[in-house]
Design brief:
With about 575 residues, the protein is mostly helical. It contains 20 helices and 2 strands. α2 packs across α19, α10 packs parallel to α15 and α12 runs antiparallel to α14. The two termini are about 20 Å apart.
Length: about 575
Protein backbone atom coordinates (compact mmCIF):
# COMPACT_ATOMS: atom_id res chain seq x y z
CA UNK A 1 0.00 0.00 0.00
CA UNK A 2 1.27 3.50 -0.83
CA UNK A 3 0.36 6.37 1.46
CA UNK A 4 0.78 9.93 0.16
CA UNK A 5 2.22 12.34 2.70
CA UNK A 6 2.59 16.10 2.18
CA UNK A 7 6.26 16.90 2.73
CA UNK A 8 5.46 20.25 4.31
CA UNK A 9 3.49 18.78 7.23
CA UNK A 10 3.65 14.96 6.98
CA UNK A 11 0.19 14.53 8.47
CA UNK A 12 -0.44 11.01 9.77
CA UNK A 13 -3.40 9.70 11.75
CA UNK A 14 -3.14 7.34 14.73
CA UNK A 15 -6.77 6.35 14.93
CA UNK A 16 -7.57 5.51 11.34
CA UNK A 17 -5.20 4.77 8.50
CA UNK A 18 -7.85 4.52 5.83
CA UNK A 19 -7.24 6.82 2.89
CA UNK A 20 -10.21 9.02 2.21
CA UNK A 21 -10.87 10.25 -1.31
CA UNK A 22 -11.38 13.88 -0.34
CA UNK A 23 -11.22 16.92 -2.57
CA UNK A 24 -8.53 18.64 -0.52
CA UNK A 25 -5.67 19.94 -2.68
CA UNK A 26 -2.30 18.29 -2.20
CA UNK A 27 1.04 20.08 -2.20
CA UNK A 28 4.33 18.44 -3.15
CA UNK A 29 3.99 14.88 -1.89
CA UNK A 30 6.17 11.87 -1.31
CA UNK A 31 5.15 8.23 -1.50
CA UNK A 32 6.05 6.13 1.53
CA UNK A 33 5.63 2.40 1.16
CA UNK A 34 3.63 1.10 4.14
CA UNK A 35 3.09 -2.49 3.12
CA UNK A 36 4.79 -3.71 6.27
CA UNK A 37 2.67 -1.52 8.56
CA UNK A 38 -0.48 -2.61 10.27
CA UNK A 39 -3.49 -0.64 8.95
CA UNK A 40 -4.16 0.98 12.34
CA UNK A 41 -0.66 1.85 13.51
CA UNK A 42 2.51 3.73 12.60
CA UNK A 43 5.97 2.32 13.16
CA UNK A 44 8.34 3.85 15.67
CA UNK A 45 10.95 4.22 12.93
CA UNK A 46 8.62 6.39 10.86
CA UNK A 47 7.89 8.69 13.80
CA UNK A 48 11.62 8.95 14.58
CA UNK A 49 12.34 9.82 10.95
CA UNK A 50 9.66 12.51 11.10
CA UNK A 51 11.22 13.93 14.27
CA UNK A 52 14.68 13.97 12.71
CA UNK A 53 13.67 15.64 9.44
CA UNK A 54 11.91 18.57 11.20
CA UNK A 55 9.74 19.64 8.23
CA UNK A 56 8.91 22.97 9.90
CA UNK A 57 12.36 24.24 8.88
CA UNK A 58 11.49 23.86 5.18
CA UNK A 59 8.01 25.42 5.17
CA UNK A 60 8.01 29.21 4.69
CA UNK A 61 4.36 30.02 3.99
CA UNK A 62 3.81 31.24 7.54
CA UNK A 63 6.49 33.90 7.05
CA UNK A 64 4.47 35.69 4.36
CA UNK A 65 1.82 36.98 6.75
CA UNK A 66 3.96 39.40 8.75
CA UNK A 67 7.10 39.77 6.68
CA UNK A 68 7.77 43.48 7.21
CA UNK A 69 7.35 43.20 10.97
CA UNK A 70 9.67 40.19 11.07
CA UNK A 71 12.24 42.05 9.00
CA UNK A 72 12.23 45.14 11.21
CA UNK A 73 12.56 43.04 14.34
CA UNK A 74 15.24 40.93 12.67
CA UNK A 75 17.14 44.00 11.53
CA UNK A 76 16.99 45.52 15.01
CA UNK A 77 18.27 42.43 16.79
CA UNK A 78 20.92 41.80 14.10
CA UNK A 79 22.33 45.32 14.37
CA UNK A 80 22.29 45.02 18.16
CA UNK A 81 24.15 41.72 17.89
CA UNK A 82 26.72 43.24 15.53
CA UNK A 83 27.22 46.16 17.93
CA UNK A 84 27.75 43.72 20.81
CA UNK A 85 30.29 41.75 18.79
CA UNK A 86 32.06 44.97 17.83
CA UNK A 87 32.41 45.92 21.50
CA UNK A 88 33.66 42.42 22.36
CA UNK A 89 36.24 42.49 19.57
CA UNK A 90 37.37 45.97 20.56
CA UNK A 91 37.68 44.96 24.22
CA UNK A 92 39.53 41.75 23.43
CA UNK A 93 41.96 43.66 21.21
CA UNK A 94 42.67 46.11 24.01
CA UNK A 95 43.24 43.36 26.59
CA UNK A 96 45.23 40.99 24.38
CA UNK A 97 47.41 43.84 23.12
CA UNK A 98 48.64 44.22 26.69
CA UNK A 99 49.17 40.49 27.23
CA UNK A 100 50.79 39.55 23.92
CA UNK A 101 53.64 40.87 21.85
CA UNK A 102 53.15 42.23 18.32
CA UNK A 103 55.06 39.21 17.01
CA UNK A 104 52.36 36.91 18.40
CA UNK A 105 49.69 38.67 16.37
CA UNK A 106 51.98 38.67 13.36
CA UNK A 107 52.50 34.91 13.45
CA UNK A 108 48.78 34.18 13.40
CA UNK A 109 48.16 36.89 10.79
CA UNK A 110 50.62 35.18 8.44
CA UNK A 111 48.45 32.05 8.52
CA UNK A 112 45.05 33.74 8.49
CA UNK A 113 46.02 35.60 5.34
CA UNK A 114 46.17 32.24 3.57
CA UNK A 115 43.27 30.56 5.38
CA UNK A 116 41.11 33.64 4.83
CA UNK A 117 41.34 33.22 1.08
CA UNK A 118 40.79 29.46 1.29
CA UNK A 119 37.83 30.08 3.59
CA UNK A 120 35.99 31.92 0.82
CA UNK A 121 35.19 28.49 -0.61
CA UNK A 122 33.97 27.22 2.77
CA UNK A 123 30.25 27.64 2.21
CA UNK A 124 30.52 27.50 -1.58
CA UNK A 125 27.41 29.73 -1.65
CA UNK A 126 25.37 26.63 -0.86
CA UNK A 127 24.01 28.06 2.37
CA UNK A 128 22.50 30.98 0.43
CA UNK A 129 20.87 28.48 -1.94
CA UNK A 130 19.13 26.92 1.06
CA UNK A 131 17.91 30.35 2.16
CA UNK A 132 16.80 31.49 -1.29
CA UNK A 133 14.81 28.47 -2.49
CA UNK A 134 11.05 28.78 -2.04
CA UNK A 135 10.57 25.01 -1.83
CA UNK A 136 13.14 22.66 -0.39
CA UNK A 137 12.96 19.27 1.30
CA UNK A 138 14.82 17.12 3.78
CA UNK A 139 16.64 15.09 1.13
CA UNK A 140 17.99 18.20 -0.59
CA UNK A 141 19.25 19.86 2.59
CA UNK A 142 20.81 16.57 3.74
CA UNK A 143 22.65 16.23 0.45
CA UNK A 144 23.85 19.84 0.67
CA UNK A 145 24.99 19.22 4.24
CA UNK A 146 27.24 16.38 3.17
CA UNK A 147 28.54 18.43 0.23
CA UNK A 148 29.53 21.13 2.74
CA UNK A 149 31.19 18.56 5.00
CA UNK A 150 33.11 16.99 2.11
CA UNK A 151 34.25 20.41 0.93
CA UNK A 152 35.29 21.35 4.48
CA UNK A 153 37.35 18.17 4.80
CA UNK A 154 39.05 18.87 1.46
CA UNK A 155 39.89 22.44 2.48
CA UNK A 156 41.19 21.22 5.82
CA UNK A 157 43.46 18.65 4.18
CA UNK A 158 44.69 21.17 1.61
CA UNK A 159 45.54 23.63 4.37
CA UNK A 160 47.35 20.95 6.34
CA UNK A 161 49.32 20.03 3.22
CA UNK A 162 50.25 23.68 2.72
CA UNK A 163 51.50 24.07 6.29
CA UNK A 164 55.16 23.23 5.56
CA UNK A 165 55.12 25.50 2.50
CA UNK A 166 53.74 28.40 4.56
CA UNK A 167 56.42 27.89 7.18
CA UNK A 168 59.08 27.78 4.46
CA UNK A 169 57.76 30.91 2.75
CA UNK A 170 57.88 32.97 5.96
CA UNK A 171 61.01 31.16 7.20
CA UNK A 172 59.41 30.35 10.56
CA UNK A 173 58.91 26.67 11.54
CA UNK A 174 56.34 27.61 14.20
CA UNK A 175 53.83 28.31 11.47
CA UNK A 176 53.52 24.61 10.60
CA UNK A 177 51.66 23.66 13.78
CA UNK A 178 49.69 26.92 13.79
CA UNK A 179 48.44 26.22 10.27
CA UNK A 180 47.52 22.61 11.10
CA UNK A 181 45.60 23.72 14.20
CA UNK A 182 43.67 26.45 12.38
CA UNK A 183 42.80 24.01 9.58
CA UNK A 184 40.40 22.30 12.00
CA UNK A 185 38.15 25.37 11.94
CA UNK A 186 37.13 24.48 8.37
CA UNK A 187 35.55 21.21 9.51
CA UNK A 188 33.91 22.76 12.58
CA UNK A 189 32.38 25.53 10.50
CA UNK A 190 31.34 23.18 7.69
CA UNK A 191 29.27 21.08 10.07
CA UNK A 192 27.17 24.12 11.03
CA UNK A 193 26.60 25.76 7.63
CA UNK A 194 23.28 24.15 6.71
CA UNK A 195 21.85 24.42 10.22
CA UNK A 196 22.64 28.11 10.25
CA UNK A 197 21.10 28.46 6.79
CA UNK A 198 17.87 26.83 7.99
CA UNK A 199 17.68 29.28 10.91
CA UNK A 200 18.20 32.15 8.50
CA UNK A 201 15.62 30.69 6.11
CA UNK A 202 13.09 30.80 8.95
CA UNK A 203 14.22 34.37 9.78
CA UNK A 204 15.24 33.39 13.32
CA UNK A 205 17.70 36.27 13.50
CA UNK A 206 17.53 36.52 17.29
CA UNK A 207 18.79 32.96 17.58
CA UNK A 208 21.54 33.60 15.03
CA UNK A 209 22.67 36.75 16.85
CA UNK A 210 22.70 34.90 20.17
CA UNK A 211 24.85 32.10 18.74
CA UNK A 212 27.33 34.56 17.24
CA UNK A 213 27.61 36.68 20.39
CA UNK A 214 28.00 33.71 22.76
CA UNK A 215 30.55 32.05 20.46
CA UNK A 216 32.59 35.25 20.31
CA UNK A 217 32.32 35.75 24.07
CA UNK A 218 33.53 32.20 24.71
CA UNK A 219 36.45 32.66 22.32
CA UNK A 220 37.44 36.00 23.89
CA UNK A 221 37.38 34.61 27.43
CA UNK A 222 39.33 31.51 26.44
CA UNK A 223 41.89 33.59 24.54
CA UNK A 224 42.42 36.02 27.42
CA UNK A 225 42.76 33.15 29.91
CA UNK A 226 45.27 31.37 27.67
CA UNK A 227 47.25 34.57 27.15
CA UNK A 228 47.31 35.24 30.90
CA UNK A 229 48.67 31.72 31.44
CA UNK A 230 51.51 32.37 28.99
CA UNK A 231 50.20 30.62 25.87
CA UNK A 232 51.43 33.54 23.72
CA UNK A 233 50.45 33.14 20.05
CA UNK A 234 48.58 29.90 20.82
CA UNK A 235 45.99 31.94 22.71
CA UNK A 236 44.91 33.44 19.38
CA UNK A 237 44.69 29.98 17.84
CA UNK A 238 42.60 28.83 20.79
CA UNK A 239 40.26 31.76 20.22
CA UNK A 240 39.56 30.65 16.66
CA UNK A 241 39.01 27.02 17.63
CA UNK A 242 36.73 27.87 20.54
CA UNK A 243 34.66 30.27 18.42
CA UNK A 244 34.09 27.61 15.73
CA UNK A 245 33.38 24.81 18.23
CA UNK A 246 30.97 26.92 20.30
CA UNK A 247 29.16 28.10 17.19
CA UNK A 248 28.79 24.49 16.02
CA UNK A 249 27.40 23.26 19.36
CA UNK A 250 24.94 26.14 19.76
CA UNK A 251 23.75 25.97 16.15
CA UNK A 252 22.98 22.26 16.44
CA UNK A 253 21.34 22.91 19.81
CA UNK A 254 18.98 25.60 18.52
CA UNK A 255 18.32 23.94 15.14
CA UNK A 256 16.92 20.47 15.81
CA UNK A 257 17.08 19.34 12.17
CA UNK A 258 19.37 16.36 11.62
CA UNK A 259 20.76 15.28 8.24
CA UNK A 260 20.05 11.96 6.56
CA UNK A 261 22.30 10.16 4.13
CA UNK A 262 22.97 11.94 0.82
CA UNK A 263 20.66 10.89 -2.01
CA UNK A 264 21.14 10.78 -5.74
CA UNK A 265 18.54 12.58 -7.80
CA UNK A 266 17.49 14.83 -4.92
CA UNK A 267 17.44 17.87 -7.22
CA UNK A 268 20.40 19.83 -5.84
CA UNK A 269 22.22 20.36 -9.14
CA UNK A 270 20.75 23.82 -9.74
CA UNK A 271 21.43 24.76 -6.13
CA UNK A 272 25.08 23.73 -6.45
CA UNK A 273 25.43 25.83 -9.60
CA UNK A 274 23.83 28.75 -7.77
CA UNK A 275 26.29 28.32 -4.91
CA UNK A 276 29.28 27.98 -7.23
CA UNK A 277 28.43 31.28 -8.91
CA UNK A 278 28.21 33.03 -5.55
CA UNK A 279 31.57 31.54 -4.55
CA UNK A 280 33.22 33.00 -7.64
CA UNK A 281 31.60 36.34 -6.83
CA UNK A 282 33.17 36.14 -3.35
CA UNK A 283 36.58 35.42 -4.88
CA UNK A 284 36.25 38.43 -7.22
CA UNK A 285 35.20 40.56 -4.26
CA UNK A 286 38.27 39.38 -2.34
CA UNK A 287 40.48 40.37 -5.29
CA UNK A 288 38.94 43.84 -5.61
CA UNK A 289 39.14 44.45 -1.84
CA UNK A 290 42.84 43.63 -1.69
CA UNK A 291 44.16 44.85 -5.05
CA UNK A 292 44.23 48.48 -3.88
CA UNK A 293 46.30 47.57 -0.81
CA UNK A 294 48.69 45.56 -2.98
CA UNK A 295 49.20 48.43 -5.43
CA UNK A 296 49.62 51.14 -2.78
CA UNK A 297 52.10 49.00 -0.85
CA UNK A 298 54.08 48.05 -3.95
CA UNK A 299 54.31 51.58 -5.37
CA UNK A 300 54.43 53.81 -2.28
CA UNK A 301 55.61 51.54 0.54
CA UNK A 302 54.46 50.61 4.04
CA UNK A 303 53.85 54.15 5.36
CA UNK A 304 51.31 55.30 2.73
CA UNK A 305 49.74 51.84 2.82
CA UNK A 306 49.20 52.20 6.57
CA UNK A 307 47.49 55.56 6.01
CA UNK A 308 45.28 54.10 3.28
CA UNK A 309 44.36 50.99 5.27
CA UNK A 310 43.55 52.91 8.47
CA UNK A 311 41.29 55.34 6.59
CA UNK A 312 39.46 52.42 4.98
CA UNK A 313 39.00 50.60 8.27
CA UNK A 314 37.87 53.75 10.05
CA UNK A 315 35.00 54.42 7.64
CA UNK A 316 34.07 51.51 5.40
CA UNK A 317 34.25 48.67 7.92
CA UNK A 318 32.02 50.37 10.57
CA UNK A 319 29.55 51.26 7.80
CA UNK A 320 29.45 47.61 6.80
CA UNK A 321 28.48 46.74 10.36
CA UNK A 322 25.14 48.41 9.55
CA UNK A 323 24.56 47.64 5.88
CA UNK A 324 25.57 43.96 5.84
CA UNK A 325 23.27 42.92 8.74
CA UNK A 326 20.36 44.68 7.05
CA UNK A 327 21.20 42.86 3.83
CA UNK A 328 21.30 39.51 5.63
CA UNK A 329 17.77 40.19 6.89
CA UNK A 330 16.44 41.40 3.53
CA UNK A 331 17.60 38.43 1.43
CA UNK A 332 15.44 35.77 3.17
CA UNK A 333 12.44 38.11 3.16
CA UNK A 334 12.80 39.04 -0.52
CA UNK A 335 13.32 35.38 -1.42
CA UNK A 336 9.88 34.62 -0.02
CA UNK A 337 8.30 37.30 -2.23
CA UNK A 338 9.81 36.69 -5.66
CA UNK A 339 6.53 35.11 -6.83
CA UNK A 340 4.57 38.20 -5.70
CA UNK A 341 5.92 41.14 -7.78
CA UNK A 342 3.81 43.81 -6.07
CA UNK A 343 4.87 42.89 -2.53
CA UNK A 344 8.43 42.33 -3.69
CA UNK A 345 8.60 45.88 -5.05
CA UNK A 346 7.06 47.41 -1.94
CA UNK A 347 9.36 45.53 0.42
CA UNK A 348 12.50 46.21 -1.61
CA UNK A 349 11.89 49.94 -1.93
CA UNK A 350 11.18 50.18 1.79
CA UNK A 351 14.33 48.19 2.56
CA UNK A 352 16.37 50.52 0.33
CA UNK A 353 14.97 53.60 2.05
CA UNK A 354 15.78 52.20 5.51
CA UNK A 355 19.33 51.33 4.47
CA UNK A 356 19.88 54.68 2.79
CA UNK A 357 18.37 56.51 5.75
CA UNK A 358 21.07 54.96 7.96
CA UNK A 359 24.05 54.69 5.61
CA UNK A 360 23.83 57.94 3.67
CA UNK A 361 23.98 60.30 6.71
CA UNK A 362 26.94 58.32 8.05
CA UNK A 363 28.78 58.86 4.78
CA UNK A 364 27.80 62.53 4.59
CA UNK A 365 28.86 63.21 8.19
CA UNK A 366 32.18 61.45 7.52
CA UNK A 367 32.86 63.89 4.68
CA UNK A 368 32.15 67.11 6.60
CA UNK A 369 33.70 65.93 9.89
CA UNK A 370 36.67 64.00 8.47
CA UNK A 371 39.22 66.17 10.30
CA UNK A 372 37.58 65.83 13.70
CA UNK A 373 36.98 62.08 13.31
CA UNK A 374 40.55 61.26 12.28
CA UNK A 375 42.16 63.50 14.91
CA UNK A 376 39.88 62.20 17.66
CA UNK A 377 40.11 58.50 16.89
CA UNK A 378 43.63 58.16 15.49
CA UNK A 379 45.40 61.19 16.91
CA UNK A 380 47.29 64.17 15.42
CA UNK A 381 50.06 61.95 14.02
CA UNK A 382 47.54 60.69 11.44
CA UNK A 383 46.71 64.02 9.79
CA UNK A 384 47.83 62.63 6.42
CA UNK A 385 44.90 60.23 6.70
CA UNK A 386 42.26 63.01 6.57
CA UNK A 387 42.20 63.46 2.79
CA UNK A 388 42.01 59.71 2.16
CA UNK A 389 39.24 59.35 4.75
CA UNK A 390 37.20 62.14 3.13
CA UNK A 391 37.63 60.52 -0.29
CA UNK A 392 36.32 57.25 1.13
CA UNK A 393 33.32 59.19 2.43
CA UNK A 394 32.29 60.02 -1.14
CA UNK A 395 32.83 56.38 -2.13
CA UNK A 396 30.66 55.26 0.80
CA UNK A 397 27.71 57.23 -0.62
CA UNK A 398 27.67 54.78 -3.54
CA UNK A 399 28.81 51.71 -1.64
CA UNK A 400 25.64 51.72 0.45
CA UNK A 401 23.83 50.60 -2.72
CA UNK A 402 26.00 47.51 -3.21
CA UNK A 403 24.21 45.47 -0.55
CA UNK A 404 20.80 46.45 -1.93
CA UNK A 405 21.81 45.46 -5.47
CA UNK A 406 23.32 42.17 -4.31
CA UNK A 407 20.09 41.25 -2.54
CA UNK A 408 18.21 41.55 -5.86
CA UNK A 409 20.46 39.05 -7.65
CA UNK A 410 20.39 36.55 -4.78
CA UNK A 411 16.70 36.75 -3.88
CA UNK A 412 15.63 36.28 -7.50
CA UNK A 413 18.04 33.38 -7.95
CA UNK A 414 20.06 35.22 -10.62
CA UNK A 415 23.53 34.22 -9.45
CA UNK A 416 24.73 33.98 -13.07
CA UNK A 417 23.85 37.65 -13.63
CA UNK A 418 25.53 38.54 -10.36
CA UNK A 419 28.69 36.76 -11.49
CA UNK A 420 28.79 38.68 -14.77
CA UNK A 421 28.24 41.98 -12.95
CA UNK A 422 30.96 41.15 -10.41
CA UNK A 423 33.42 40.28 -13.17
CA UNK A 424 32.85 43.60 -14.95
CA UNK A 425 33.06 45.69 -11.78
CA UNK A 426 36.22 43.89 -10.63
CA UNK A 427 37.93 44.68 -13.92
CA UNK A 428 36.86 48.32 -13.65
CA UNK A 429 38.19 48.47 -10.07
CA UNK A 430 41.58 47.12 -11.13
CA UNK A 431 41.86 49.63 -13.99
CA UNK A 432 40.82 52.51 -11.70
CA UNK A 433 43.31 51.49 -9.00
CA UNK A 434 46.12 51.21 -11.55
CA UNK A 435 45.38 54.77 -12.71
CA UNK A 436 44.79 56.30 -9.28
CA UNK A 437 47.91 54.83 -7.65
CA UNK A 438 50.04 57.40 -9.50
CA UNK A 439 48.60 60.07 -7.16
CA UNK A 440 49.17 58.10 -3.98
CA UNK A 441 46.65 56.74 -1.44
CA UNK A 442 44.28 59.66 -1.92
CA UNK A 443 44.32 59.11 -5.69
CA UNK A 444 43.34 55.45 -5.22
CA UNK A 445 40.52 56.44 -2.87
CA UNK A 446 39.16 58.99 -5.35
CA UNK A 447 39.49 56.49 -8.19
CA UNK A 448 37.28 54.15 -6.16
CA UNK A 449 34.70 56.95 -5.87
CA UNK A 450 34.75 57.55 -9.63
CA UNK A 451 34.39 53.90 -10.58
CA UNK A 452 31.58 53.42 -8.04
CA UNK A 453 29.79 56.46 -9.39
CA UNK A 454 29.88 54.96 -12.89
CA UNK A 455 29.37 51.27 -12.12
CA UNK A 456 26.61 51.56 -9.49
CA UNK A 457 23.92 52.96 -11.85
CA UNK A 458 25.00 50.50 -14.56
CA UNK A 459 24.74 47.51 -12.19
CA UNK A 460 21.37 48.78 -10.94
CA UNK A 461 20.00 48.88 -14.50
CA UNK A 462 21.37 45.38 -15.15
CA UNK A 463 19.99 43.99 -11.86
CA UNK A 464 16.53 45.47 -12.39
CA UNK A 465 16.24 44.33 -16.00
CA UNK A 466 13.73 41.50 -16.18
CA UNK A 467 12.75 41.97 -12.50
CA UNK A 468 9.71 43.62 -10.90
CA UNK A 469 11.88 46.63 -9.97
CA UNK A 470 12.31 49.94 -11.73
CA UNK A 471 14.88 52.72 -11.38
CA UNK A 472 12.11 55.27 -10.70
CA UNK A 473 11.14 53.28 -7.60
CA UNK A 474 14.73 53.36 -6.36
CA UNK A 475 14.89 57.11 -6.92
CA UNK A 476 11.71 57.47 -4.87
CA UNK A 477 13.50 55.70 -2.01
CA UNK A 478 16.65 57.80 -2.50
CA UNK A 479 15.50 61.39 -2.54
CA UNK A 480 14.58 61.82 1.14
CA UNK A 481 17.88 60.41 2.54
CA UNK A 482 19.86 62.33 -0.09
CA UNK A 483 18.25 65.73 0.51
CA UNK A 484 18.32 65.33 4.30
CA UNK A 485 21.98 64.27 4.32
CA UNK A 486 23.04 67.08 1.98
CA UNK A 487 21.18 69.70 4.01
CA UNK A 488 22.57 68.49 7.34
CA UNK A 489 26.08 68.22 5.92
CA UNK A 490 25.96 71.70 4.36
CA UNK A 491 24.73 73.37 7.55
CA UNK A 492 27.31 71.55 9.67
CA UNK A 493 30.10 72.51 7.28
CA UNK A 494 29.02 76.17 7.26
CA UNK A 495 28.85 76.35 11.05
CA UNK A 496 32.10 74.61 11.92
CA UNK A 497 34.29 74.24 8.84
CA UNK A 498 37.65 72.64 9.68
CA UNK A 499 38.64 71.65 13.20
CA UNK A 500 41.74 72.64 15.08
CA UNK A 501 44.80 70.40 15.31
CA UNK A 502 44.59 69.40 18.98
CA UNK A 503 43.23 66.04 20.04
CA UNK A 504 41.11 67.48 22.85
CA UNK A 505 39.76 70.29 20.64
CA UNK A 506 39.02 67.78 17.87
CA UNK A 507 36.92 65.64 20.23
CA UNK A 508 35.04 68.73 21.39
CA UNK A 509 34.37 69.91 17.84
CA UNK A 510 33.34 66.39 16.78
CA UNK A 511 30.72 66.35 19.53
CA UNK A 512 29.37 69.73 18.44
CA UNK A 513 29.25 68.63 14.82
CA UNK A 514 27.41 65.42 15.70
CA UNK A 515 24.76 67.15 17.85
CA UNK A 516 24.25 69.66 15.03
CA UNK A 517 24.15 67.21 12.13
CA UNK A 518 21.72 64.68 13.65
CA UNK A 519 18.85 67.07 14.59
CA UNK A 520 19.06 68.92 11.27
CA UNK A 521 18.93 65.60 9.41
CA UNK A 522 15.79 64.54 11.29
CA UNK A 523 14.12 67.94 10.98
CA UNK A 524 14.68 68.14 7.23
CA UNK A 525 13.47 64.55 6.84
CA UNK A 526 10.22 65.27 8.71
CA UNK A 527 9.63 68.42 6.64
CA UNK A 528 9.75 66.43 3.40
CA UNK A 529 6.53 64.84 2.06
CA UNK A 530 5.94 61.46 3.66
CA UNK A 531 8.88 61.85 6.02
CA UNK A 532 6.94 61.80 9.27
CA UNK A 533 4.84 58.82 8.18
CA UNK A 534 7.96 56.83 7.30
CA UNK A 535 9.70 57.55 10.62
CA UNK A 536 6.51 56.80 12.56
CA UNK A 537 6.02 53.43 10.86
CA UNK A 538 9.62 52.39 11.54
CA UNK A 539 9.38 53.50 15.17
CA UNK A 540 6.13 51.58 15.74
CA UNK A 541 7.51 48.39 14.22
CA UNK A 542 10.74 48.67 16.20
CA UNK A 543 9.01 49.36 19.52
CA UNK A 544 6.67 46.44 18.93
CA UNK A 545 9.71 44.21 19.30
CA UNK A 546 10.32 45.61 22.77
CA UNK A 547 6.74 45.31 24.07
CA UNK A 548 5.57 42.13 22.35
CA UNK A 549 6.97 38.65 22.66
CA UNK A 550 7.49 36.79 19.50
CA UNK A 551 5.50 33.57 19.43
CA UNK A 552 7.62 30.71 20.68
CA UNK A 553 7.84 27.53 18.59
CA UNK A 554 5.99 24.65 20.11
CA UNK A 555 7.94 22.10 22.07
CA UNK A 556 9.13 18.94 20.46
CA UNK A 557 6.35 16.64 21.69
CA UNK A 558 3.62 19.17 20.96
CA UNK A 559 4.94 19.85 17.47
CA UNK A 560 5.06 16.15 16.59
CA UNK A 561 1.60 15.54 17.99
CA UNK A 562 0.17 18.40 15.93
CA UNK A 563 1.89 17.13 12.78
CA UNK A 564 0.65 13.60 13.38
CA UNK A 565 -2.99 14.64 13.78
Amino acid sequence: MDLILPTSAARLRHSSMSIEHSARPQISCERIHLSTFAPDSISREQIQEHERSRPEYFEVKALHDNLVDRSVRGGTVTIFGEATRFVLRLGSTAVLSRLLAPADFGLVAMVTTITGFVGILQGAGISMATVQQERINHAQVSTLFWVNVALAICLMLVTVALAPAIAWFYNDPRLTLITIALAATFLLSGLAIQHSALLRRQMQFGTIALVEVVALLASVLSGIMAAALGARHWSLVIMSLVASATGLILTWLFCSWRPASPQRGSGVRSMLIFGANLSIVDILSFVSRNADNLLVGAVWGAGPLGIYARAYQLLVLPLQQVTFPLGSVAIPALSRLHDDPKRYREYYYRFCEVMLAIGMPIAAFSIVAADAIVLTVLGPQWTACIGVYRAFGFAALFQVFSVALGSVFVSLGKSDKMLRAALCTTISYLIAFAIGVHWGPQGVAFSLTVVLGISTPAVALYAYYGSPLRICGLLASLWRPLISSMAAGYVTWCFFGLTSDGSYAAAFWLTLQAVTFAPIYLIVWMMLPGGRLFLRSIAVLTLSRLVCRQARPSNRAGGIARDLE
